[in-house]
From TrEMBL:
Species this chain originates from: Alsobacter metallidurans
HAMAP family reported in the protein's UniProt record: Q_tRNA_Tgt
Gene3D superfamilies the record matches: Queuine tRNA-ribosyltransferase-like
Upper taxonomic lineage: Bacteria, Pseudomonadati, Pseudomonadota, Alphaproteobacteria, Hyphomicrobiales
Subunit structure: Homodimer. Within each dimer, one monomer is responsible for RNA recognition and catalysis, while the other monomer binds to the replacement base PreQ1.
Pfam families assigned to the protein according to its UniProt record, in alphabetical order: TGT
Biological processes, Gene Ontology terms: tRNA queuosine(34) biosynthetic process
Similarity comment: family membership: Belongs to the queuine tRNA-ribosyltransferase family.
UniProt protein name: Queuine tRNA-ribosyltransferase
C-alpha cells in the first residue's frame, strides 16, 4: 500500500521539498490526500459549475470548496445534514473545504448590520433575516460535514483607511478565538485562522502572530485579491509568511490568475481557490500554455485547430476552435461545459507542474518557462 493510500485518522501536513520559499507537500486526512501546491475548484452551491464530480477528480483535484453563505440559504445546512452531508449530496467523497460565509455576507447580503456578536443580514435570495456569528458559522460548517473549515472574519474592501483595517482585523481576531472554541477538537478535521489587516504591514504581522499563538491547524491569508494591484497582494504575502508556522499549510483565499498562483507559490503559499477558471469558461475565455484566449473573437470562427493539442484535457485536444467559437456565440450549454473543463484542467496541470518543479529544485526555471509560453502566445495564427 502506497503512502497516499494509507488510511489516516487525523489531519497532518508534511513538507516533501522546498525550493527557496516555494514548498511542496501533502495534507493527509481521512477522506484523502491533498497534494500541495493545490488549487481548489470552487463548488459554491454544492457543485463545481458545468462539471461532473468525476470529471473534477479526474483532472487531479484533491479537494473542492463549498460556500457556507450560499448553502445556509439554499438548500439550508440542516437539510444538507439530514441528507447525509455535503459529500454525499454532491457525490464527492474527497476532502471539502468550506469558507465561513463572511466574505459573501459583506459583498452580497442586503441590509447587513455588523456588531461584536456577528452580522445580521437579509438574504439576497428571498430577503429572509439571518444572523451569522462565529459559533453559527462553525455549526453550519459542521452540519455540512466539511473537512477543512474557516473561522468567521470580516473582510474589508481595499483600499481602506488604516483605522478601518485595524478595526476589522481586531474584530476578526476576537472572532477567531470564538471560532476556535466552537470548533473544539475534531480528529481528522481542521480549522484555519484567517490573517487580516488590509494593506498595512504592521497589522498583518500582528494578526499572523496572534493567530499563530492560537494553534490553528492551518492559516489563511484573507482580504486580498479584492481590487488591489498584484504587487500589493504579493507584498502582503511576503510580510505575513515569516510569521506563519512553517509546519502548517498556508492558504491564499480567492486567488487567482495563473500568474498570481506562480508568484504566490514562489512566496510560500500552499493552497488556492478562485472562481476565475470556471467563470471565465462560462464566458468564452480559456487559459492555456499560450496564455488567455477569447473564443468569442471572430478570428476563431474558421480555425480548425484545437485549443492545445498537448493539453491533458480532451476538450482542449479534440474540439476545433471553430466549433467552440460556434458554441459560445450560440449560447450553447456544451460550450460552457467544455471551456470550463479546459480551464480547470489547465489550473490542475499548472499546480502539478509546480509540485514537480519544486521537487526537482527548478521552480524559478519552471516559472520563467511558463510565463514565456504565455508571452509567445499563438506563434502561428490560423491564416485560413
Amino acid at each position: 500500500m502506497s503512502l497516499v493510500d494509507t488510511p489516516v485518522e487525523d489531519f497532518t501536513f508534511t513538507l516533501a521539498a522546498t525550493d527557496g520559499k516555494a514548498r511542496t507537500g501533502e495534507i493527509r486526512m481521512p477522506r484523502g490526500v491533498i497534494r500541495t501546491p493545490a488549487f481548489m475548484p470552487v463548488g459554491t452551491a454544492g457543485t463545481v459549475k458545468a462539471m461532473y464530480p468525476e470529471q473534477v477528480k479526474a483532472l487531479g483535484a484533491d479537494v473542492v470548496l463549498g460556500n457556507t453563505y450560499h448553502l445556509m440559504l439554499r438548500p439550508g445546512a440542516e437539510r444538507v445534514a439530514r441528507l447525509g452531508g455535503l459529500h454525499k449530496m454532491m457525490n464527492w467523497q474527497y476532502p471539502i473545504l468550506t469558507d465561513s460565509g463572511g466574505f459573501q455576507v459583506m459583498s452580497l447580503a442586503q441590509l447587513r448590520k455588523l456588531d461584536e456578536n456577528g452580522v445580521t443580514f437579509r438574504s439576497h435570495v428571498d430577503g429572509a433575516k439571518h444572523v451569522l456569528t462565529p459559533e453559527r458559522s462553525i455549526e453550519i460548517q459542521g452540519l455540512l460535514g466539511s473537512d477543512i473549515q474557516m473561522q468567521l472574519d470580516e473582510c474589508v474592501k481595499l483600499p481602506c483607511s488604516d483605522a478601518e483595517a485595524e478595526r476589522a482585523m481586531e474584530l476578526s481576531l476576537r472572532w477567531a478565538e470564538r471560532s476556535r472554541a466552537a470548533f473544539g477538537e475534531q480528529p481528522g478535521k481542521a480549522l484555519y485562522g484567517i490573517v487580516q489587516g488590509g494593506a498595512v504591514p504592521d497589522l498583518r504581522v500582528r494578526s499572523a502572530q496572534q493567530l499563530a499563538a492560537m494553534g490553528f491547524k492551518g492559516y489563511s491569508i484573507g482580504g486580498l485579491a479584492v481590487g488591489e494591484p498584484q504587487d500589493v497582494m504579493l507584498s502582503m504575502i511576503e510580510t505575513v509568511e515569516p510569521h506563519l508556522p512553517r509546519e502548517k499549510p498556508r492558504y491564499l483565499m480567492g486567488v487567482g490568475t495563473p500568474d498570481d498562483l506562480i508568484e504566490a507559490v514562489r512566496r510560500g503559499v500552499d493552497m488556492f481557490d478562485c472562481v476565475m477558471p470556471t467563470r471565465a469558461g462560462r464566458h468564452g475565455q480559456v487559459f492555456s500554455r499560450m496564455g488567455k484566449l477569447n473564443l468569442r473573437n471572430a478570428r476563431h470562427a474558421d480555425d480548425p485547430r484545437p485549443i492545445d493539442e498537448q493539453s491533458s484535457c480532451p476538450a482542449a485536444r479534440d474540439n476545433s476552435r471553430a466549433y467552440l467559437h460556434h458554441l459560445v456565440k450560440a449560447g450553447e450549454i456544451l460550450g460552457m461545459m467544455l471551456l470550463t473543463w479546459v480551464n480547470l484542467a489547465y489550473y490542475q496541470d499548472l499546480t502539478a507542474g509546480m509540485r514537480k518543479a519544486i521537487a526537482d529544485g527548478r521552480y524559478d526555471d519552471f516559472a520563467a518557462e511558463t510565463k514565456d509560453g504565455w508571452a509567445r502566445g499563438d506563434l502561428e495564427p490560423w491564416a485560413g
